[in-house]
Amino acid sequence: MVAEGAIRAGCRFFAGYPITPATGIFKAMIDALPARGGLALSAPDEISAIAECIGAAMRGYKAMTATSGPGWALMIESVQYALMTETPLVIALVQRLGPSTGGATQGAQGDLLLAEHATSGGYTIPMLAPSNARECADLTEIAFAWAERLRTPVVVLSDKEVGMTTERVDFTDGSSSPETYAVGTNGNNGTYYFNRPGDIPLFTAVGGATRVIATGSAHDKRGKLQKNSPETIDVLRHLEEKIRLRAHELEIVVEDIQPEARTLVISYGVTSRAASSAVRLARDSGLNVSHLSVKSLFPLPYAALDRALKGVESVIVPEENLTGQYRRIIAPYIGNRVLRGINKIGNMISPSEILRAIRVTP
Questions:
Q1: CA–CA separation, 342 and 223 (whole Å)
Q2: Average pLDDT in the 69-86 region?
Q3: Closest Cα partner for 58 from 189, 218, 181?
Q4: Do residues 186 and 179 make contact, with C-beta atoms less than 8 angstroms apart?
Q5: How many Å apart are CA 108 and CA 20, to the nearest integer?
Q6: Rounded Cα gap, residues 259 and 323, in angstroms
Q7: Using CA atoms, how far apart are residues 32 and 55, in angstroms rounded to an integer?
Q8: In the structure, how many helices (H) and strands (E) does the chain have?
Q9: Which of 38, 99, 261, 281 is the most exposed place for a label (fewest CB within 10 A)?
Q10: Does 181 have pLDDT greater than 60?
Q11: What is the Cα–Cα distance from 59 to 263, expressed in whole angstroms?
Q12: Within 10 Å of residue 338's Cβ, how many Cβ atoms?
């Protein structure tokens, strides 16, 4: 469904290297994209795959690649290049058990921090997390819209269970309306011209009448390499500000809130399915529990967190990783509430495990 969402969004270029559990996306794009007027390539490795996608995106084609943890590790330098050059790009990252080669056929939610903190400067990479097949399609469409609107790489973070599960999806309830690049030129002002830090420069494709300068080094608004000039610092601040200032607009969550609830479950990805079942079972037994299923992991959905935390005394965050990666990210915003994690690798977290935590939470 990631492939279907990409094509519905107008993706016309894909390059990838087969890797479990992302191979399904690779095969679907290779099979379907040429018939839809696009080009799909089997790259010799992950580094080549993302580089080819960046080149296509710079030329004005909507582009995507797909990989898993080991491949993402190889792509990180190029992801930073796309961020620095403000190149719209979508990366589907289907998680598997790590570290290193890890367990190719075992699901996990262990790549969240690796994906979000992939830049040496600590810049925010927008990230979406589907929990079912329909969301894979819908959130991939949204990822393309974000990438184009913000001129930045965007990650669709799923996992082996979501990525390889077959589900029936009905697309007759609405039609796709792909967004298009804000194409134009910035005149003589340069490739990356903006007035205010939160502004987004018009996209200018390479190979046209307007000269485009692209470098991964610190540069001014024209794209020319400069070190530590005030304008260069403004450009670097702008890369973060254009995301930060739109955080409230990028918020995508499913709020299942009970006004009297003192316990809140916060989940994302495949674990949201178990969390929804656990919350329903808890309510059936007379407990008041709220559930916040986060679809837009980054930038953090601050407003949704504030709404969900009102009146809450304890928070539970189930994740298929050992260290509670999203729990650690949101911990500073929880305040003095009790914050508990349910952490597990090797197998999925079950509704009964979450229900047990709800029942023993003070």
A1: 46
A2: 97
A3: 181
A4: no
A5: 13
A6: 30
A7: 21
A8: 12, 12
A9: 99
A10: no
A11: 50
A12: 14
Evaluated on CA atoms 342, 347, 351, 353, the torsion sign reads negative
Kindly indicate the confidence band of residue 274, based on its pLDDT and cuts at 50, 70 and 90: very high
Tell me what the mean pLDDT of segment 219-226 comes to. 89
Q: Which residues contact 289 (CB under 8 A, 6 or more apart)?
A: 258, 261, 263, 264, 265, 279, 282, 283, 358
Reported confidence tier of residue 179, pLDDT bands at 50, 70, 90: low
Q: What's the pLDDT tens digit per position in 309-330?
A: 999 999 999 999 999 999 999 9
pLDDT at 189: 60
48, 53, 58, 59 alpha-carbon torsion, rounded to 10°? 100
Six-digit token pair at 147? Answer: 């990438």
What are the structural domains of the chain?
2-164 (3.40.50.970), 253-360 (3.40.50.920)
Paired tokens of 204? 């200018």
Q: How far is 278 from 298, CA to CA, in rounded Å? A: 25
Question: How sure is the predictor about 227, in pLDDT bands with cuts at 50, 70 and 90?
Answer: confident
Under DSSP, the state recorded for 13 is E
In this prediction the pTM is 0.94
Long-range contacts of 36-39 (CB under 8 A, 24+ apart): 36/7, 36/12, 37/12, 38/7, 38/11, 38/12, 38/13, 38/14, 39/12, 39/13, 39/14
So what's the pLDDT on residue 210? 85
How many Å from the N-terminal Cα to the C-terminal Cα in the chain? 40
**Residues in contact with 86: Cβ distance below 8 Å, sequence separation at least 6, in sequence order:** 151, 152, 192, 200, 201, 239
Q: How far apart are CA 105 and CA 87, in angstroms?
A: 32
- DSSP lists the bridge partners of residue 50 as none
Please indicate whether residue 276 or residue 259 has the higher confidence score (pLDDT): 276
